Fold this protein.
Amino acid sequence: MKTKLDAIRECLESVIPGTIATASPQGVPNVAYLSQVQFIDSEHIALSYQFFNKTRQNLMANPHAMLSLINPLSGAQYRLSIEYLRTEIAGPLFASMKAKLAGIASHTGMGGVFRLLGADVFRVHDIERVPGETVQPPPAQHNLLAALRAASERLRSCCDLERLLAETLACLEQLFGIRYTMILMFDAPSERLYTVASRGYEASGVGSEIPLGHGVIGVAAQERTPIRISHMNAEYSYSRAIRESASRSDWAHALDTEIPLPGLRESRSQLAVPVTAAERLLGVLYVESPHDLRFTYDDEDALVTLAAQLGMAAQLLQNAADAGEDAPAVQPAATPVGGMPLTVRHYRENGSVFLDDDYLIKGVAGSIFWTLLREYADKSRTEFTNRELRLDSRLRLPDISDNLEARLILLSRRLTERGAAIRIEKTGRGRFRLCVDRPLQLREG
């Protein structure tokens, strides 16, 4: 039986470096080690192009080469007959290989040496198994197909976005054995991603943000492609590096409105998967581990599939919430509140809101919160709908596809974590109630 490229993907994890044999037009052979071999599909791979060396010279003159790979689990060795097709210097494949190479370079102490110049794409013509003894690979820790099926069934039963997000992270821990996870939603106007749910960390980090294109999460979102790094890599550290750099900069004062991202201080394996719906970026599903080589190609496939279902379900639930009740629930009689007044300060320039001088939230979610408080203070309103927020010109929501429901979840969680005398309660599909337990003093900054 002919060996398929899909069946030997473990050989492409860069645990054991592969070797490539090329030949000049005069037939002079050359053999070199490879930093990275990337699986593309059942007929194509990509090799990292880092130096203009003899291998590169030979490939430009003679596109045919022989690649030798070893399965790190069984010791099985394979020879692949390959043909150079092209070099990509930008785009999803390049971004994915660049991130992975950075992890390899950091792991091997070659961070200042390894720089990806391009992703060389090859067609695989034949795969030959080299005779020799092998060992039985260890059994898999999890049956990913079974886990994926069980997760799909659990997500299918979710009736609102908040439960969908929580259930997704619960499935990752309980079914896939992945303890540290988070989901970030995309804010198109600011080109940033904000954390809306996390699991496994000491602090939730809900409301923390990362710019598009920064770190493993931002790159995955920008390129709309999964990014998987198997070794600790400072270049793609996504949280503290940004914050620590900012603390030394001239805009350190901005940290007053920055919430630290959750995350492992020494993450050794990372996988960020874009969450999309109808080609539109909704956010990123991110997982990490303190162990090297925790995530494989099979894990990546499973999480890409899970993220696809998450994206479709999130979009459906978002649309359902926006198209919910036309009118808010019947307004109850105003209930007197007592205690010390709570000062709420709003800064229009960035939508930030502070409660008694403590930062709460900013951006669109901050503007939504301020609008709700004004309605409460001016008209004693407590009942609201997603639809009226969508149509409220004061909020200037980007468009109908904005993640309004996710912003409300973010606001609700921030209020809960802050232990404020204000909270948001769902009262039905697309409806919610603003609950206030202390007198408010509203101030414009």
